Amino acid sequence: MQSTHRSRRPRFAMWHQILVALILGVAAGHFIGEPAKMLQPLGDIFMSLIRMCVIPVVFVSLVCGITSLADLAAMRRIATKSIAIYLLLMAATAVMAIVIALAARVGVGFDLPAGAAATSVTEPASLKDALLAAIPSNPFKAFAEGALLPSIVFAIFFGLAINLSGERAAPVRAFFESLSAVVFKLIGMVLKFAPFGVFGLMAFVTADRGFSVLGHLGSLVAVNYLVLLFFMIVVCSVSLMMVRLNPLPFLRKVLPVQLFAYSSASSAATLPLNLETTQQQLGVDTRIASFVLPLGSTVNMAGLACYLGTVAVFASNAYGIELSTMQFAMVVVTTALASIGAAGIPGAGLVVMSLVLASVGLPLEVIAVIAAVDRLIDMCCTSANVTGDTLTAVVVARTEGVLDIEQYKRV
Asked: Which of 9, 144, 221, 250 is most buried, taking the most CB atoms under 10 A from its CB?
């Protein structure tokens, strides 16, 4: 009788725990103020635990995903579908952001300091340098440095080599399948600390930045949040209905992933939770999830595309520089391409912002001003990024006929 009573005890779902932790963290940061910054170690410890898992999860998941797709034609088909959807999502969010920002007259009347110095950002790499950087000369160095893109490239080649080796590679394939089970057990252990980490992260961010940072930049933040919420709710719902799926289970089950992405502002850090949710809650076949999601954490930056689109409008209005339709088209193209090269880490927007602004001749000094609200926008951008990753995995699995519909619908 005692064990029966214990089994009926209500258990808070992960998204409930994360949501409560997020709200309590914001409240603590706002009402306690400066002393709440002492809670930062909770967030730092959790982020360190998550980063500890990222490279093993990405490498093992991709290798297992590729080895399970022994049919090279099927793998090419899945990769083509995924990249096409990612590019479409990025272009669509950039266009929506530009249209709404123009309608809202974002940046009009904003007086930029005459001597504003551009914030220190990394110079965007050339296409040749970006390609060379993606190929690891030493994969173990890439693992040690946490370099996601080179690790992904090596995992793809390693998985293909296992497939091409045939039966002789059977022990290696079996080893990675066993290792995958161990890695996901590790993720489960780390995610139990998630509510505490989210609480510490949000308490520190709120105490450090507060709500006063919005100020005159409020319209820029508001437009980004409006577009990204529209994307995460309406665009995703329409996309799922196009493949004959009810969007409500998706919107409900992806919420903990979105909340965690919002608090961490890191697509890479959210990847372990996203993999677990997509496979176990949404019924996406492991072969699809383990290939599409790690790829999306590097390639898909729909949220960042929205951010850069609104920044272009903000800068043009703030400086009184009228952009032509062709220049806005250039912003969309450059934004999509620049977003692909952006790492799934906090602050990536500032790194590629200079490339987008320079492509249409806008002053780079505006970056110093926008940096004040970068964290607030980046948090929502990350939620949109991971939502796009999850949406793509579900859509690809559905079109490939490997989506567990019963699991997808299950409450």
From this structure: 250
